[in-house]
Amino acid sequence: MPAPVPPLSPAARGFQAIPLLQRPVPRRPIVPVLGRPPRVHLWHIGCQMNDADHEMLAERFAELGFVPDAALDDADLTVLITCAVRQNAEQKVYGKFRELTDWKQARPGRAIAMTGCMAVEHGPALLQKLPDLDYLFDVRDCDGFFARLQAVHASDLDGPLPLPASDRLLAYVSVMGGCNEMCTYCIVPFVRGRETSRPVGEIVEDVHRLVERGVREVTLLGQNVNSYADPGTGAGLPELLGAVDRVPGLWRLRFLTSHPRNAVPELFEAMRDLPTVCEQLHLPVQAGDDALLRRMRRMYTVDEYLAKIRAARATVPELGLTTDIIVGFSGETEAEFLGTEALLRTVGFDVVHLQAYSVRPGTAAARRPDDIPIEEKKRRLNHLLDLQRQIALERNQGLVGRAVEVLVESVTADGRPFGRTRQGKIALLPAGSAAAGELVEGRVQTATAWQLSADVEAAAA
Question: What is the dihedral of CA 431, 436, 437, 439, to 10 degrees?
Fold first, then answer.
C-alpha cells in the first residue's frame, strides 16, 4: 500500500466527511400526514459519480418505502445532489435552491435535503446560509439521514416498494470513491475523501440487478478508476472488468475516469480481449508541458503520457481516445500553452473536454496567484476548441465507408434513431431503420466533427 499523501495546505485539513447535520437553532418539526408513501424528487448536477449517487439514493428510498424519482410537483421531499468542482456548478445549485423555496412553501410538510460535494465542502455553513434547507448529509454516510426520514414518515411507510423495469439502456455503477492523487487544482480528495474500493462481488451484483431491469450498457465509475483494488483480494480493474464482462445480458462495458500513472498493459489487454469492454479510453492529461504538469502535481511527464498512448493504441487498434485539459492554470506561460497545443496535434484525440482554470478554496493551487487574465483564458480556450474541432473532423471523416456498431438510445425530433459506437461516437441512422434498445451494424456515410451518419446494414450479433 502506498503511504498516505498529506494535505498540501493548512486549509485543506479542515475538509472532512460530515454526518447528518441539524440546524443549531430550534425549528418547527416537519410532521407531514400524507396517508400514502412519501414521494421524493432527486436532482443532480456535475460528474457521473453524482449520476451514480442518484441511482443509489433512489434504490435506498425504494427499500424504505418511499417513491423515488417523482415529478417535482408531486414530491414531498427534494434531494439536491450537488457539485463543488467549479464555481459555476455551485451557482447553479443555489439557483435551483431558490426555485425550490417557492415549491416548499406551496404545500405544508414539504422538505429540501442537500448532499454531494457542496454539502461536504461547506458543511454546517449551508444551514445558516439557506434557511429553508431541512437536511444536510454526506452521501457516503447516509444512514443517519434515512433513519431520520423513517422516523418522520413512520406512519406512511408500508415496507419496500419494487423499482419498476428501467427505461434506461445505460447506467453508471460506482466501484470506488475518493482519490489519493492530490492534484493541486482539485478539490475532489477533500470532498470525496481517500480512495476506497467496493468488493468485486458487490459490484457484479449491482450490474446483475441493472441488467435484469433492462440496462444493456454499464459504465464503472471512480475518480481514479484504474487504481481500483478489491478490499479483500486486491484484484485490480482488469480483473473487475473480467468479472463484470461475464454478467449474462450485458452488451457493453465502459469505465471512467483513468489516471495515466495507473494505465497499465493489463488494462489495455482487458480492453482488447473482453467482448463487452468498449474500445474507449478516457485518459486526462490536463496539460502538455512538464513544468506545468509538476505545478499541477500530475506525477508524470509528457513523454511518459505519450508512451501510455502508444501502448494503448498498439494493443487496441480501434481505440477511441478522449481527454481533459485545463487552460490558464496559475503561471501558465505562452510556451507552456503551446506545449499543450502541440500535444493535441501529436495525439489526435477523438474528444477533448476543455476547461478554463478556476480557483477552488482549500486546494494547494489556491495559494498561487490566479494570474492569467480571463480574456487570455478565453483566447487559449477558443484556440484549442478550434484546433480540436479540426482534429475531430479529420478523425471522423476517416471512418467514412467503415462499419460501426451502434447501440440505439433514442430518436431525434425528426425521427432519426441515434446512439453511440463502441468508441463513444454519436451516430445518426436513417428514419425508421431502428428502434431504441437495438444493437445494429451500420456503415458510415458522412461525418462531422461531432457525429457520424450511417446506414443500417444488419442487427449486431
Answer: 20
